Amino acid sequence: MSKKIFLIQRDALQPGEVRKVETPGCPLAVYNVDGTFYATSDVCTHATASLSAGEIVDGDLIACPLHDGQFHIPTGQAMGFPCTVDLRTYKVIEEGDAIYADLEQESEAAASAI
Ligand code: FES
Questions:
Q1: Closest ligand 1 atom to the C-alpha of 65?
Q2: Is the separation of the CB atoms in 62 and 53 below 8 Å?
Q3: Residue 85 carries which DSSP code?
Q4: Which CATH number do you get for residue 21?
Q5: What's the whole-number mean pLDDT along residues 11-38?
Q6: Is residue 91 part of a domain?
Q7: pTM for the full model?
Q8: Is residue 114 part of a domain?
């Protein structure tokens, strides 16, 4: 099963940047981590802040803007208090300069971490 949606053009998101993208059902946060694109739910699992308003720190962590909780971007893993529930991740598909997400599949890093 696949539900591919367009997220962003590659050159619209520079390394170290995160952007909110509205999709049917759930806003996503799209990240450029040193040239690799990732997508997660934009909604912090602690108290529903928008993670795309936060910052990428320590290479591949997103720091929530509300209480500074952190998640590992590739796997969605919650990194500790106050975040205890992992983020939903989405498989990213790159086709030329266009970046897509498959809303039916988790990221490859999350899938291989199970
Ligand atoms: Fe994100 Fe509290 S809402 S850490």
A1: 1
A2: no
A3: S
A4: 2.102.10.10
A5: 96
A6: yes
A7: 0.95
A8: no
What pLDDT, on the 0 to 100 scale, is given for residue 25? 82
Distance CA 107, CA 89 (A): 5
Tell me if 79 is assigned to some domain.
yes
**Which residue of 83, 84, 85 sits with most ligand 1 atoms within 8 Å of its CB, as the best mutation to test the pocket?**
83
Report which secondary-structure segment, H or E, holds 31.
strand 28-33
Q: Is the pLDDT of residue 79 over 80?
A: yes
- Within 10 Å of residue 28's Cβ, how many Cβ atoms? 27
For residue 43, the enclosing domain spans 4-109
Atom of ligand 1 nearest to the CA of 49: 3
Q: Which residue has the higher pLDDT, 54 or 24?
A: 54
74 in any annotated domain = yes
Buried b (16+ CB within 10 A) or exposed e, 81-100: eebeebbbbbbbbeeeeebb
Q: Which two tokens stand for residue 45?
A: 């699992």
Structural domains counted in the chain = 1
Of ligand 1's atoms, which has the minimum distance to the CA of residue 64?
Answer: 1
